[in-house]
Amino acid sequence: MTPPIAPAVSAQQIDRFASHGYLVLPDLIPPATIQELRVEADTLLGHRLARMVATRTLDPRVTWWRLSSGEPYVLKVKPVVDLSSTATAVADSPEVRAVVADLLGAPPKLMDNKLMYKQTVDITAGWAALPVLGEEVRKHTDDAYYAARGYPRVLTVAVCLDPCTETAGALRVWPGSHRHTIEMIPTDNQGPVVPDAAAPDATAVTLVAEPGAVLIWDAALVHASGPNTSGHPRRLLVLGYSPAHQDNGEPR
């Protein structure tokens, strides 16, 4: 008789994820792969910024704004798996998919992907009509956005390319918030945000992690991140997975 395949995460980790809504898995991605992701992330961003400056045309993949100092600030590039072979390899890797399958309780389907940068960029951007915002990502959840696209259940997987320290703007989460209906307030430029009364700062947990670690959270979990004041990059490859049987007709 063929023995059953061992789960990618333990029963205790699955239970903890169900109750807390997040999980941190250190050293899941090898250092060589992390270095390849760093190189591709920087190359990808450099090419897209250069093209925008040359054509004075906004790139729909790039989410950026201007800080109060006047510096252009890039939050993310989305999507990226068609631009980065290493990102595709990580998204499709048996290790990542096995973990997600155990936590979802179903085979996973990649439905979202992006590179998060959280960094100022030294380019000429006076031609671009950009909003003026801060560096922080305010408290929010992603479930309403995903549900509107036909994905009622999504797990987010973030691969740390750099040290995710508190000063670098590490992810903050509110344990157990995915199990409750959370109040949301619309904003002009940052989508619906969660008011402080619904997610007090005192109850947040900061997910400090090293390069190669993987952070996983339920899309309904309240999360946020502060500014990157470390002087070093804080890049993440962020992947969203839904159960494979959820088919809204969108391509991979």
Structural class by sheet pairing and helices: alpha+beta
Question: What overall form do the CA principal axes indicate?
Answer: globular
Uncertain spans: none
The mean pLDDT is 93
Number of strands: 11
How much of the sequence is in beta strands? Answer: 15-25%
| Biggest sheet descriptor | 7 strands, antiparallel
The N- to C-terminal Cα distance equals 36 Å
**What portion of residues is helical?**
10-25%
Rounded Rg: 18 Å
Entry summary:
The chain has 252 residues and is α+β, with helices and mostly antiparallel strands. Helices cover 23% and strands 23% of the residues.
Describe this structure in words.
The longest helix is centred in the N-terminal third of the chain and has 25 residues, at 31-55. A hairpin with a 5-residue loop joins strand 2 and strand 3 (72-77). This protein starts with 10 loop residues before the first helix and ends in a 9-residue tail after the last strand. The chain is globular and about 55 Å long. The protein contains five helices and eleven strands. It is of the alpha+beta class. Strands 1-9-6-11-4-3-2 form a seven-stranded antiparallel beta sheet.
What key attributes describe this structure?
single chain, 252 residues, alpha+beta, seven-stranded antiparallel beta sheet, four-stranded antiparallel beta sheet
